Amino acid sequence: MSRPPLVEVAPAKLNLALHVRGRRADGRHDLETIFAFCTDGDKLTALESDDLSLTITGPFAAMLDDGPGNLVHRAASALAAEARVGKGVALTLEKNLPVASGIGGGSADAGAALRLLTRFWGTDPALAQRLAPELGSDVPACLLSMTARGTGAGDALELVDAGVADTPVLLVNPMLPLSTRDVFAGWDGVDRGPLGDWREGRNDLEAPARRLVPAIGEVLDWFEEQDGVDLARMSGSGATCFALFETEDARDAAAAACPEEWWQMASFVR
Ligand SMILES: C[C@@](CO)(OP(=O)(O)O)[C@H](O)COP(=O)(O)OP(=O)(O)OC[C@H]1O[C@@H](n2ccc(N)nc2=O)[C@H](O)[C@@H]1O
Ligand SMILES: Nc1ncnc2c1ncn2[C@@H]1O[C@H](COP(=O)(O)OP(=O)(O)O)[C@@H](O)[C@H]1O
User: Domain named GHMP kinase C-terminal: which ranges (predicted)?
Assistant: First the structure.
């Protein structure tokens, strides 16, 4: 008898604050960030099969290649090789998050694939942890999908309580993709100081991202006009911005008023 499908959510990632502290020898940047995760995101399903396959469904499926370069494929192949198990699994990715948008879509999917296949194949969870940083700087945080402080390239993690669990959040993207690499390349090299209280912090990638996609400024200005916004900021390398709301009703009212040409997702912080 075949086994029932296993399902794993790939929660959207937020950088509550992101301080860029310097350039590293490996071409990446030293960061100080607070990662938080939403209750919603992409969805990954595993079904028994003889071979490894990936099918992509959902609103952003057309923007993604389902070939071996997909981070879900890469995570699955890497775990199978590391664990020395057969690669048999039919994966379906429901792609709800816009691609290249600062909320970790690909990294979240890779993290979800590692969690899902650790369960599906019964492999040692330490293997997934070991592979995560090789799949991307954000993948260790997404594997954890819990509020954490990230340092180093964003892959050295310490669990923290940011005090925002269950907060209503609205994510808005002006529907313009941004390359993480290009945004980091536009950072001016000025270290503006360490991250203490994240509420008093900033996103140092906002300025270079806004130079590439000025519509980010329109989204942040629009958030400022909404009632009940506690804090609004850009996430990651953009262009998605998020606002934390005082109440669910205020969040829903803003969602209802959001311009139609922008992508939006109403959720809660996990
Ligand atoms: C900016 C952040 C903040 O959480 O998120 P996103 O905007 O991607 O969501 C991350 O640091 C993105 O992590 P991730 O998307 O995994 O990046 P990677 O695949 O490792 O690297 C892609 C490119 O981003 C740049 N990069 C990434 C991480 C880092 N600490 N310094 C960098 O300079 C490098 O140019 C690198 O070649
Ligand atoms: N499963 C995936 N979902 C999204 N992007 C992916 C995936 N696999 C590979 N990629 C590639 O990773 C790049 C970064 O995408 P993504 O992780 O969504 O960005 P961000 O981290 O800024 O949200 C994209 O340009 C895309 O081509």
Answer: 202-261
